[in-house]
Amino acid sequence: MTKRYAKAFRKSLAPYFFRMRAILPLLLAATPALSDPSIFEDFQGEVAGWQYVSDRVMGGVSDGEAVLAQDGDVIFARLTGKVSTANNGGFVQMRRGLTAPLPTDSTGLTLTVRGNGERYFVHLRTTEGRRPWQYFQAAFPSTVDWQEVTIPWSAFQPAGGLSSRLKPTDIRSIGIVAYGRDHTADLSVAQIVVNQPKS
C-alpha cells in the first residue's frame, strides 16, 4: 500500500472556544469491522471523530497539527507542534469523543506509541466536567521506537476542580496531549486499546 497522508483542516468548536482540525479519513480499501471490541482505535479503514485542539483561541501561542500517516504496514495518527506556555497557554492535542460508554469492568488503556523522548499525557473528559479545563490526566513516556504503554484508570488524576474518582462509564472523550511546558511535540499513536480484566 502506498504511503498517504490525510490533510487536517480547521474547524471551530463553539462550546469550548477552541480551534481545532479534524483528522480526515485515510483513503483506504474497505476493511471488515474490528473483531476485538477492546480496540478503541487502530486507524484502519475510515477514521472519524478525531479533532486537533490547541490553546490559540484561548490566548495561547502553541501551534501544531494532527495527521494520519503510514510507515510500512503501520498506520498511525501523528501529533506534532510547538508547545508554548506563553500567554497562559501550553498544549496541543488530538481528541476523540465516545459514541458509547466504556465497559464498567475495564481497567485502563494500552497505547502503541512512538515519539521524540518527551513526556505526553492522556486527558479523559467525563460527564462530570463542565468546563474545558476539567479532566482526568495521566502521563506516559515516549521513545523513538514503537512501544506499548499501559495506563490503569487508577493512574488518572483529576484536574480543574474535579473531586470524584474516575469511573470508566463516565468517560466521554479521550485526548492525546502535549502539555504543560515549552517543548517540541512529535508523537505517533498506532493503537488505543481499552483493557479488560484477565479471565
Descriptive labels:
mainly beta, eight-stranded antiparallel β-sheet, disordered N terminus, globular, six-stranded antiparallel β-sheet, 199 residues, 0% helix, 14 strands
Describe this structure in words.
It is a single chain. This protein has 199 residues and is mainly β. Helix content is 0%, strand content 49%. The protein is built from no helices and 14 strands. The chain has strands spanning 8-13, 18-23, 39-41, 50-54, 63-71, 74-83, 91-97, 108-114, 120-126, 135-140, 147-152, 157-159, 171-179, 183-195. The chain has an eight-stranded antiparallel beta sheet with strand order 1-2-4-7-13-9-10-12, with no helix packed on it. A hairpin with a 4-residue loop joins β1 and β2. The termini are far apart. Mean pLDDT is 83; it is low at 1-35.
Question: In order across it, which strands form the biggest sheet?
Answer: 1-2-4-7-13-9-10-12
Estimate the global geometry from the Cα principal axes.
globular
Order of helices and strands: EEEEEEEEEEEEEE
Query: Looking at the chains present, what oligomeric state does this protein adopt?
Result: single chain
Reported for the largest beta sheet, the result is:
8 strands, antiparallel
Q: Mean pLDDT score, rounded?
A: 83
The gyration radius over C-alpha positions equals 16 Å
Number of strands: 14
End-to-end Cα distance: 37 Å
Structural class: mainly beta
Question: How much of the residues is beta strand, in percent?
Answer: over 45%
Indicate the percent of residues in helices.
Answer: under 10%
H/I helix tally: 0
Runs with pLDDT <50, length 5+? 1-35
